[in-house]
Structure formats: C-alpha cells, structure tokens
Design goal:
Arc Repressor Mutant, subunit A, single chain, alpha/beta, D-Maltodextrin-Binding Protein, domain 2, 12 strands, transcription, 5-stranded mixed β-sheet, WH-like_DNA-bd_sf
C-alpha cells in the first residue's frame, strides 16, 4: 500500500483510542487537533480499515479499532521490555525481574528467595513494589510485573499460581494487655474488644477467612478500624485502639509496644501464593519459579 505506517502513527492511534477524544489526545501528544485527525484518517485509508465511528462530538472505536487498541498496548509494553533488557545487557546485567507483593511476603519469604536466587544469578536486577492483591492481578495482565505474591483463593484464567506458604494466624495485643500466652484460652475471651483488621478490599477471601475465626468463637467482632498496612495495625494496637489478627508471617521478631499470641489450634489457614502470567516471556522468570519450587518445600 502507498501509505506506510510508522511507529508514531500507532502511538497517535493509541492516544485517541484511550481518550476517545481528538482534542484531548492532541494536547497529550503536543500536536494540533487537525494534524492528528489527518494522521488518523490517512492511517485508516492506508490500512483499508475503519478504526473510529465519529458521531458529532462522540468518538467510538469500531470492532477493528478495539482489537488494534488491545494488541498495540501489548506490543508497546513488549517493546519497552525489550529496550529495558537491552539497557541491562549494556550495563553488564543478564536481565531484570519485576516483583509485586503483599506486605507479609516481605517479612521473610521474598528476602530468603532473593538471597538464594542471587547466589546463582548475581547479574539480575530486582524491582520490588508492594501492591494490593487485585492490583497485582491487573499488573500481571498488563505485564507491568513478572510475578506477584498474593493472598487470593481464586486466580483468573490466563494466570498460574503455586502456594509458597501455608500458615495460621496470630493475635496482636498491646504489650500490657492482661491476656497472654499463659491465660489465653480462645478469642471468646475478647468478644467485647475492638478489632483492627485488614480492609476487605485487600482480599475478600482473606477477610472472610478471618471473620470465620470469630464466627467459630460465637461472636461478631466490633471492627473499629480497617487498613492495608501491618505497620498501621501495630501502631494502632500499641496505642490501645484495639486488637488485631494477622498472618503469622507478618509477626516480626520485635515490635515495640505489642505482643503476639499464635493461634495454632484453629482450623483456618491463609495461603501466600506466587502468581504469574502464562504469556510472560521473561527468561529470568523460569529460573525464579524453579527457585520458588525448591524453596517452598522448606517452609
């Protein structure tokens, strides 16, 4: 065809496809609106494909346009990863691994994994970011992270997971609270207390699991605070705003002002899983998954 597509034309299309507004897209691209409209029109004529339906001031993607938008987003994401990998090779590194995690994974699991992995793969760059469960799922699909560590019972199709740690819970109390390891019998002793829990949005399945602990003890907790950060929970407990229940792996060796009672005799367990996109082509990921498989047997 006489019209030759260039990389900039694809970026122009993607900007309009995301904004569904030519003026806004033009401003974002720092070009004139008439110029952008002309480029898109030429692109449609050159491809022989209608990409947008234009109705007065309303712009909609055609079926072909929707397809192209999805594929181009994946294309540009892959292109960015290729360029990043080339830069790493230039710097003497073999690659990088982008890791998402919930807070409890950073207490022991991830540090131990990274130390073990680095012994045999010293030229790998790790990028780590604490992200909530659903955020990790979204970013695995968009390939913004290579692997996540989540607390979710169900994983969407297209992703795969392996359990890394199966653990019980710990009760968190102020250091001077009269209940301790010696006189603790069950949670029913604390039915009149206030509780600080992880926000239900953090992981609905995890939240239901914790609520089942209370149900087994025949009371509904008075939940006065919700948060997504363990550090906030510990600070609130320390200052007598309430008690909490957290995964055992979130129990650090020492936190000033609080104490822990392990709930070993309850049936509830919480599973920390590693999850990744089956379409991920990062060669470092395969080696990292092998390390996880060998590491999880030790927990």
């Amino acid at each position: 065809m006489c019209y030759q597509l260039e990389l900039r034309h694809l970026r122009y299309f993607l900007a309009v496809a995301e904004d569904l507004h030519f003026r806004k897209a033009a401003e974002r691209l720092f070009i004139s609106q008439p110029g952008l409209s002309k480029q898109i029109k030429e692109m449609e004529v050159g491809m022989g494909v209608k990409l947008f339906d234009r109705h007065n001031r309303k712009v909609e993607l055609t079926q072909a346009g929707e397809f192209l938008k999805v594929e181009l987003k994946n294309y540009f994401s892959g292109l960015e990863h290729i360029i990043e990998h080339a830069k790493l090779l230039n710097d003497g590194l073999l690659g990088d691994l982008k890791i998402g995690y919930v807070g409890s994974a950073m207490q022991k699991i991830i540090p131990d994994l990274l130390l073990a992995f680095r012994k045999h793969h010293p030229k790998v760059l790790f990028n780590l970011e604490e992200i909530d469960n659903q955020g990790q799922i979204d970013r695995l699909f968009s390939h913004d992270i290579d692997i996540g560590f989540v607390r979710l019972e169900k994983i969407p199709r297209g992703l795969k997971s392996i359990p890394v740690l199966n653990e019980t819970f710990s009760l968190v109390l102020p250091k001077d609270h009269p209940i301790n390891d010696e006189n603790f019998v069950n949670l029913a002793q604390l039915k009149d207390a206030s509780f600080i829990l992880f926000n239900e949005k953090y992981s609905p399945s995890y939240f239901e699991n914790v609520m089942q602990i209370f149900e087994d003890n025949h009371f509904t907790p008075n939940v006065t605070h919700n948060t997504i950060h363990a550090s906030s929970i510990y600070k609130l407990v320390e200052n007598n705003f309430g008690l909490s229940i957290v995964p055992q792996s979130l129990k650090p060796s020492f936190v000033e002002g609080v104490k822990f009672i392990d709930l070993e005799n309850i049936p509830q367990r919480t599973v920390l899983s590693a999850v990744w996109n089956l379409n991920n082509r990062n060669p470092i990921l395969k080696n990292f998954l092998e390390k996880i498989e060998s590491h999880k047997d030790k927990n």
